[in-house]
Design brief:
Layout: E1 3-5, H1 15-19, E2 25-29, E3 35-39, H2 50-54, E4 60-62
Antiparallel strand pairs: 1-4, 2-3
Length: 63
C-alpha cells in the first residue's frame, strides 16, 4: 500500500511530509499554484501510516 493524496482536501500544510521517516512525501505547487502533498518516492514507503495520522484534513489514505 502506498499513500494517496486527495488533492481536493489537501491544504499543503506539510505535517505528512514531516512525519514520514523515509521522505516519501514532498510539498509542491499544483497547476494553480496551491501547495499540495506529492507522493514523490512511493517505492520507499514502509506503510507506517504516520502521514495518515499527521494530516489534519484527512487528505491521505493508504491504498
Amino acid at each position: 500500500m502506498i499513500p494517496k493524496v486527495d488533492k481536493n482536501i489537501c491544504e499543503g500544510i506539510g505535517a505528512c511530509a514531516e512525519s514520514c521517516p523515509t521522505e516519501v512525501i514532498d510539498i509542491g505547487e499544483d497547476d494553480n499554484g496551491a501547495l499540495k502533498a506529492i507522493i514523490a518516492r512511493p517505492d520507499d514507503c514502509v506503510e507506517c501510516g504516520n502521514c495518515v495520522d499527521a494530516c489534519p484534513t484527512e487528505a491521505i489514505t493508504l491504498e
